[in-house]
Amino acid sequence: MATKKKQSGVFHRLLTYAIKYKWNMLSGFLFVLVTTAVTTGNTLLIRYYIDNHIKDGLTRIAFVVLALNFGMVIVRAVTSYLSEYLFAKVAYATVRDLRQAAFDNIQDLGMAYFDQTPAGAIVSRLTNDTQAVADMFATVFSSFMKSAFIFVATLMAMFSLSWQLTLLVLLFLPVIWGSVALYRYYSQELVAMTRSKLSEINVKLSESIEGMRIIQAFRQEERLSQEFEDINGEHMVYANRSINVNSFFLRPAMSLLKILAYALILTYFGLNWQTSTFSAGLIYAFIQYVSQLFDPLIEVTQNYATLQTSMIAANRVFEMIDREDYEPSQINQNLTITRGDVEFKNVSFSYDGKKDVLKNISFKVNKGETIAFVGSTGSGKSSIINLFMRFYEYSRGQILIDGQDIKNYSQQELRQQTGLVLQDPFLYHGTIASNIQMYQEISRQEVEDAARFVDAHGFIAALPQGYDNPVTERGTTYSSGQRQLLAFARTMATEPKILILDEATANIDSETEEIIQNSLRKMRQGRTTIAIAHRLSTIQDANCIYVLDKGEIIEAGTHEELLALNGTYHKMYQLQAGMMAK
């Protein structure tokens, strides 16, 4: 549960974002002041008329007062609109900045964060939580300012009319503050749990939509619906509990106190009307001011739930902005990768700091050579790629490129000279050309040359719109082979010196495999290639094949040398050959 001090810190931090739009905020405050002055002054105007001119009937002064009253109502409506409009502009500008700051920080976070955090939870913080902050600025902030000004102005007016009656009314304030304190105590955890369950709903939605094919293929619709119903039900339970707390401590309680204040004032007037100098206008003004005094308090307490939600939501957004588990940093000595020779020297690595997934890995591959890693799931193959791509930091051993520590290269140089092809290529919503170009400074001709190089031009040219053919999310309208060829073209368009193939042919059908293999052979020529292979038939021509088991290299050699050893590689090869024969 967040402490009051922590909430105060979150609020002040939000103000540092909003202060950039100070002129809109100041203008909003100005209109709030005008609204307050008009609201308070209108009651004094009516009181003056009742005490001095109501007995005269429909005289000229009556029409003047009526016109002034009508004018004040119009002014109040206009200034209220303008203040809310300006605060809303500040709200959405602030939320835009918050979302941008959070998104920018996400781009720099290391892969460990994305491995541990569900995508739906991230989306929820960037959408639902930031929207809750907007609600605070647009509604609560405006309401709080207006209510504070009206409260102070009303108290001053009441004291000027009768300090005795005003003190009687003020007896209710400790009860009001106590009610708000109790509400805050009981509601804070409920609000936090409601936001947490909403985040879980987003996670489940994201997971279900992305995995819909698997869900339907394995007939898991009923199970997923039940899981969603459970989470949705838990969210409703906490939301209902929050409503119960709101209903008990907020508006009904404030309305009851308001009625009691009316009763107290009327009783006081009734008992003292013969001996006091109270006029009808004064009684009218006090009744109006009691309403003006309590209405802002009712509005503030009613919006306190929104404030609570906003503070918790803002804290969740700031947690994302403040995360510092960034991707590994580079020393950046302005080095240039000229050849692309790669060497691992006694590299060990652990994801959790306890159990090593790589143990003293050493190998070397020069320009124009190809090495491959094979092994069972969890043997450490992908971890080698993760370290080389600088997705994770290592602390033991050394990785060299052209004899220089990999940490000495700038990130731009390292990524530009390394081409990565994954097992499941990711295509973005756009066109064929934009997916190959990836918004880099590459001409249309270079895009087409890259596609021709990897033998993708043929199927692209046959599409209705060629290179401008649309690509839907993840490229689901294209075959796995076509998506992989587009990934090859994307990689080759930058002409990298080092090529990383992470199970690049694992999901390719036998008919497409020949085209893919031909493309790979051309891609590997003159480049340093590190491949993770599932199909042993695809890496038989590698200069060296390393067999991994539990993070260690247990065998190394060419295809023929490993078969001659009659060890783990030989068993893997026989197993795959037997499966293909069947």
From TrEMBL:
Entry's Gene Ontology molecular function annotations: ABC-type oligopeptide transporter activity; ATP binding; ATP hydrolysis activity
Cellular component, GO annotation: plasma membrane
Primary enzyme class: hydrolase
Alphabetically ordered keywords of this record: ATP-binding, Hydrolase, Membrane, Nucleotide-binding, Transmembrane, Transmembrane helix, Transport
Domain ABC transmembrane type-1 residues, every copy: 28-309
Chief place where the protein resides: membrane
Keyword Hydrolase applies: yes
Subcellular locations according to the entry: Cell membrane
EC number(s) per entry: 3.6.3.-
PROSITE patterns, per database record: ABC_TM1F, ABC_TRANSPORTER_1, ABC_TRANSPORTER_2
Domain ABC transporter: 342-575
Superkingdom classification of source: Bacteria
Keyword Cell inner membrane set for record: no
Protein's membrane topology: Multi-pass membrane protein
Name of the protein this chain belongs to: Multidrig ABC transporter ATPase/permease
